[in-house]
User: Fold these one by one.
Assistant:
Number 1:
Amino acid sequence: MSVSQTEWEQHRPAVFGAAYRLLGSVADAEDVVQDVWLRAAQADLDDVVDLRAWLVTVSARTSYNLLNSARARRESYVGPWLPEPLLTGPDAAAPVLVDESVSFAMLLVMEELSPPERVALVLHDVFALPFDEIAEVLGTTSAASRKLASRARGRIAKARGRQPPSKAETAEALQAFKAAAQAGDLARLVELLHPEAVYVADGGGRVTAARMPVHGGERVAMLAIRVVLQARPDSIELIELNGEPALAAHRDGALLWVDTVELVDGRIVAIRRVANPEKIGHI
């Protein structure tokens, strides 16, 4: 017997969640979801004990096969590449599995992992799959899969460093950044930004955006003011992306960009702006 519609709707967030964490793209993850649905609808699942684990495994195997081609596409990407933001919270159209592993900062760290490390980490630490099943996805041994996940954890711990701020702290920093940028208050922006702050914009060659990261609190502050003056957004609102507060700028009903930030000691150390229409059209 194949999967029922009720069972599919129950497990679809996990299928999408595995693909999105592995690929960092909403569009690619949705393609994987469709592939998994077609396979599940045609498969004989009578002998499957854990349907969720089976679906997540198929999702991961399909995503794993796409990872190398996805990385190749990023090498020819125009300007900095950032993960495709995922709308979460009350505004999300469909249920989303949200935890620390789906945060923007974590997705960027996972981009530094090898595809096998990423698969082993996500399947074991997020979806609690045993290493023998992960080994089947990767075509390796259970012991090797365990080592891959352990190595990935170590690299992530080293990259992340300190404890991330609360949602309230992030929202407060974003609101202050928004107010200062709209007011053209350079002094206030410099105060909010860490001296070593970096601004990374992903326009994908589709819209005007910095082709290289901008470093230094004062330079980032001046750029933030200049972009607001040039783009003239009607509104900049607080939303939730990837389980964390973010800003969304609109003009004439169209979404111009979304911003996420990282904080260190209460100051903004990184601003990541996604403006590529292909990446934010679903928000």
Number 2:
Amino acid sequence: MKKELIKYAVFALCILLAPLVFSGNYLMNVLVFVGIHTMLAVALNLLLGYAGQISLGHAAFFGLGAYGSGILSTTYNWNPWLAMTVVALVVGGLAFAIGFPILKLKGHYLAMATLGMGIIVYIVFNEWVAITGGPSGFSGIPNLELGPLVFDSDLKNYYLVWSFVLGCVLLSVNLANSRIGRAFRAIHDAEVAARVMGVNARLLKVQVFALSAMICAIAGSLYAHVMTFVAPPSFGFNISVELLTMVVIGGLGSIYGSFLGALLLTLLPEFLRFMHDYDIVFYGGLLMVMTIFMPGGLVRGIPDLFRKITGLKNKKGGAHA
């Protein structure tokens, strides 16, 4: 556990000092999105990487958080912090309720069920024009405030979002190293064996599904109050695929790997603008390549590659000697 605390402290220090190195509004804005995507990737990694339950519908929870917080704080004049809290709890409760029937499924059946859930939510965002604004989106969402401090600049939003990310990472690391985290890994590796050993696999799967949904909802609320505008395309199937790609590329079962995946996949679109609507093809290809050649993701693949390179150098040095 001491090793984990040191890793977390180094990670937090790098995050706090990043604005001193990467100055400029554009870079700050990109890093804000890296933070939001990190929260989403960590949420999905808890479900997929630790508990072994795939989901292609997490963009729905992200969207429910964004629209819920935006509508409550704008249309009904709720305090944004209260709106975020209520929406996170409601989305968590909804995920808990639908998790019981959905998580009875396994493999591609589970993937299809979560995909269907995501599509239904996306259609609601598009068609419920009176509430969500439909395809035109929903605007006028207020920035978050903390006393006299208004989070209305890229630098302020950076520290706001990354404060939540650091809290999310700390929670996830502690959970992963706890008795519950070990139970998640047991379910992931052999669910039948875990049940035999007394693990309540069904309840734990639903609980981690609900927790994952709540984190996504909080990320969605932050997105809404940072952007002050939300629209359905930001919560479609493509986003779910991107999240899955982030988790696989970063490393399944690695919290810090989620950050690496989010960082890479947030920066890549800046270089893929020429592909327009075909960027999803690139993500699919990247996912296949990573799964085949680097199944442990970047967080495990890079050290393995380094060891192989240094091992080859040592062998060559020994041959010359």
Number 3:
Amino acid sequence: MPELPEVEVTRLGLVDRIEGAQVHAVRLGKPLRWPLGTDPQALAGARVGRLQRRGKYLWLPLGACGGLLLHLGMSGSLRFDAAEALPPAGPHDHFEMQTDRGLLRLTDPRRFGAVVWSSALDAAPAATLLARLGVEPLSPAFSASVLQQGLRGRRVPVKQALLAGDVVVGVGNIYCSEALFAAGIDPRQSAGTLDRAACERLVDTVRDVLQRALAAGGSTLRDFRDVHGMGGAFQLQAQVYGREGLPCRVCATPVRRIVQGQRATYFCPRCQRLPHGS
């Protein structure tokens, strides 16, 4: 599933190339998670503004025509190139926007992604979809005090609390496992029991892991490709994720795999010990 690094890699690959482009036409394929919400023909003639990201959403402003809120879902990726440089639309290509600078195409085999029109970022449906998102993990607003306050009173395991996205947004499954390992925190520990020192470590490791993932082009476990069609490589740096039974790179203890909230969790039972009473 594309997480914050993959979405930001996508934004960075698009932002300067598509800004200022004029929309000529929009084509829809099979239905995505939510309907577009407007007549595709109404977007023709719009001028593309500066592409923005909020969590795992991308906002593509279209001037007086409002804008498009995009989500890559579980298997989506965006390509942008001259139409003649791209292969013909295939069965998994469900949105295309032809501009005077090239063709923007969403490929999404599982169709959990979305392209939704909104009159503005602060108007429904965009505002509704973004309303409950937590702070951006790479922003100054993400601090130990914010994290500790957001987790206070939560009995769910800390990994599930982070994945919920209402305290801090976009820390996906692979990055959550890696950040918790680097912080020495057991993913099963009750979220509300993390003390200030643990929250400080976790803020630092979340930032570090996400920044390294961005530098590596994100992670490609199956479907993700950037706007140039290239896969990410962060998964090759993983300390625990996907390494069940292999020796921990720090202490050589076999890495464990458990399932939390239907998501695979990887951790080192020696480097990430549960505090007494947790």
Number 4:
Amino acid sequence: MTVLTFTLILLAGAYAAGLLGSLTGLGGGFVVIPLLTLALGVDIHYAIGASLVSAIATSSGSAAAYVKEGITNMRLGIFLEIATTIGAFTGAVLAAFIPAHFIAILFGTVLICSAIISLKKKSNEVNLKKSYLAEKLKLDGNFPEAGGFVAYRVVNVVGGFGMMIVAGIISGILGIGSGALKVVAMDGVMRIPFKVSTTTSNFMIGVTAAASAVVYLQRGYIDPAICMPVVIGVVLGALSGSKILVRTASAAWLKYLFAGIILILAIQMIYNGILGRV
């Protein structure tokens, strides 16, 4: 395969990855890594490096829009980034000592869990219970709705912080944003409205990926020849996916369709990991 052919295939595949990631809400990294390892035979560590760089690019673009709209809780995001950055750096260091086939199995397992989480019905229920620690750290906030601003309170700060460390470790090992796990921590544990948890998670993903990317860069696992078409393709795919969601009256069937595709990719990753083909 020539360099040009490889680049064009990778660009087209990354576009599809960004499209799928946008429509399912899981991010392009979940598709980029199986594409590179299973279809193109790229070493999983280089695939993770490319996925981290694409996560930084996509998060930076979309996060800016959500911050401008006033939905993102920046103070909460920056506080929780302490946990995810520590976890991401730890995970990236550990990844060098974990066999590639085990990473593939873990990736497939996390992918299945994330796909199931993405299909669960979301709630924008507002919590009004007070938390001493959240009040001291000024983590409570509000977000705009049709009738004005809706105030909410944050609870179980310690539990959410602990879950963010775990999400960061998984992100560092697998090269994904772990957005679904962050949303679970904020939505399920800290009782933050879903709209705020998803946008704040998006705000955090880029920083988490950057912490891991530093380690991968030092080890030589970030190859510009792979990263460039991946970043361009994923960003364009994510933009297309967001437009499709806006124009489609009911996107539920799209989410189920593409979640099914992602589940197939996850099973393939686990199968190849068990056989040691990755």
